[in-house]
Amino acid sequence: MLFERVGDRGPYFGEFGGRFVPEALIAALDELDEEYSRAAADPAFAAELDRLQREYTGRPSILTEVPRFAEHAGGARVLLKREDLNHTGSHKINNVLGQALLTVRMGKKRVIAETGAGQHGVATATAAALMGLECTVYMGEVDTRRQALNVARMRLLGAEVVPVSTGTATLKDALNEAFRDWVAHVDDTHYVLGTVAGPHPFPAMVRDFHRTIGVEARAQVLERVGRLPDLVAACVGGGSNAIGIFHAFLDDPQVQLLGLEAAGDGVETGRHAASITGGVSGVLHGARSMILQDEDGQTLDSHSISAGLDYPGVGPEHAHLASIGRARYEPVTDDEAMEAFRLLCRTEGIIPAIESAHALAGALRAGRELGPEGVVLVNLSGRGDKDVDTAARYFGLVSDADLVASEAERVSGPVEQTEANGW
Amino acid sequence: MSTTDLPAASAGADTTAPVPAGLSSASALDAARAAGRSALVGYLPAGFPDRAGCVDALRASVAAGLDVIELGLPYSDPVMDGPVIQAAAETALRGGTRIRHVLESVEQLASAPDGERAPVLVMSYWAPVLRYGVAAFARDLASAGGAGLITPDLVPDEAGDWIAASDEHGLERVFLVAPSSTPARLASTAAACRGWTYAASTMGVTGARTSVGSAAEGLVAAARGAGAERVCVGLGVSTGEQAAEVGAYADGVIVGSALVRALSDDGVAGLERVVRDLAAGVAGARG
């Protein structure tokens, strides 16, 4: 079946999940749940989504073996699931197309989204343009500056980008603002939540739209290698790409599932975004999950070089998989991720997203443990175009003069939307 | 932790006075009803503009006509709040306001002298209560003399622990209904409330508005029809005129952002002026 395994529907995943939202949103969540259930049982919906995936996204995404990179991973075979080759440059489009189709089915005219690195915002703006929907994207003001290229992309696609300056001005605050918008405009607006977090039915629904990653990859590895991988690695912020690739392997106990969380400067420093490794059970953004919070339940600031992983929570199903031991979650520091980033660029000619570089770092670790007989599947969730500026600065590839010049060209405050000719 | 272990209050309140028993917000609503008017319910975040200032401002507000105090527990991610209350909560958090300080404030307000004392409901997002421990929070809130808790992001479906804890400690629990609530949800929410039901006047977040949602009156009637004993209306009320409009049909009129703004802009004197205007509004609503 295209969607859902029996028993994985939510609203709870063990002790995690649920709906911790204002009453005003319950009706919209119920409507979404019902519409999604109808769509999941409707062959026409599956056929349309399948057509879009093939003809628009470019699915199935290919599997690339990376032997030169693997020399640094204990000689284990390393295979990359190339979600970076999807239209819009990441896995995010899988979920967005599904939710945009649902928006049209519900008769709503407008979508809103939150975005951190900008990939989900770009994907949502893309789907909105494709289907003739209005689109507003909320983005932390800090992120609008570190991902200015994606802000421009969204605006080119016709979306309104709203910089969010409240709280920490990052992804979690963009989510808050999107929820506020949704409460006020729920009649004509659908909130395209970008990860497997949030209130039911989002965690299960978003996962279902991403399951295609794992379903394809499982078949591709079997065909390529003749057996299942020993380990599947994926980066985890909210956790959508990871749950998408993990799910097809849940019933294969011999396959280890490894989620790599952003450890920033190191979990021990407190400047990190590793919610499972360094968090506690709590409530954030509508669901119970593992959260970075203080002893008063206040959400802590997260930190990562990767805007897309810079989130103090994680999807409830990941919290559950960690609690039952089916998947394990390990931290990867900024420096480890950037070393893996550099390595893939130099050994294979592939520039990954910094998010995905966390998974690559995990693959290097795991490969060294497994040795030459091991087979590691890595979800390369996105491409690195958006991160070139960050990486160039990290590695000192641009001169101080260039940095000064590019800073001078940037607006000092939030990125303002101007009435440019024709836009 | 028991509030008896708390350090001495700095707000000038006599914390040695016994906390009066039975100071429920429902009784304040009933008293207002008996007087032929709606009750005025006022919100400020604990710790805003600072801990002592908040308590002083609320005591002055009660003297100016506030019937029920809604004391906000500042939270880092207040999705139901608009910019005014968000900014106030950020101020309170930057000032170091913790849950124990909120409970201290409850105790100081609940033991204020006659004329400055009103039932105190805490309004809190669920994350801080869950982290503190639901049973422990109920115990300490009751021990501080709090009347109960308003939970903007906790629906009864998820509230099993809180329902048990509030029953055990005799605390009021106020859940919200919204214009989008179905008849079935109105009934189940009304049944889960103890004290009263909070009707959100509009689909949106807190903040002053030029008009109160037209759905509010119908929602109050529907909630009553679904079994709600008392229904107060919040979101968007900021003037005496609006308070009069809502007070004509609701058991209570809830005001938040307008009080926060008045206190920010004009201090306690400005806050008292706004409260008097609102109190006059509810007093004249059914004239």
UniProtKB/TrEMBL annotation, chain A:
Recorded metabolic or biological pathway in which this protein acts: Amino-acid biosynthesis; L-tryptophan biosynthesis; L-tryptophan from chorismate: step 5/5
Residues in the signal sequence: none
Keywords, ordered alphabetically: Amino-acid biosynthesis, Aromatic amino acid biosynthesis, Lyase, Pyridoxal phosphate, Tryptophan biosynthesis
Keyword Ion transport (UniProt): no
Listed GO MF terms: tryptophan synthase activity
EC number(s) from the headed UniProt entry: 4.2.1.20
Cofactor: pyridoxal 5'-phosphate
Protein's UniProt keywords contain Amino-acid biosynthesis: yes
Enzyme class: lyase
Pfam family, one: PALP
InterPro entries attached to this UniProt entry: Trp_synth_b_CS, Trp_synth_beta, Trp_synth_beta/beta-like, TrpB-like_PALP, TrpB-like_PALP_sf
Record PROSITE patterns: TRP_SYNTHASE_BETA
GO cellular component, one term: cytoplasm
Catalytic reaction annotation: (1S,2R)-1-C-(indol-3-yl)glycerol 3-phosphate + L-serine = D-glyceraldehyde 3-phosphate + L-tryptophan + H2O
Domain Tryptophan synthase beta chain-like PALP: 59-382
Modification N6-(pyridoxal phosphate)lysine occurs at: K92
Role summary: The beta subunit is responsible for the synthesis of L-tryptophan from indole and L-serine.
Protein family membership: Belongs to the TrpB family.
Description of how the protein assembles with itself and partners: Tetramer of two alpha and two beta chains.
Name this polypeptide is given: Tryptophan synthase beta chain
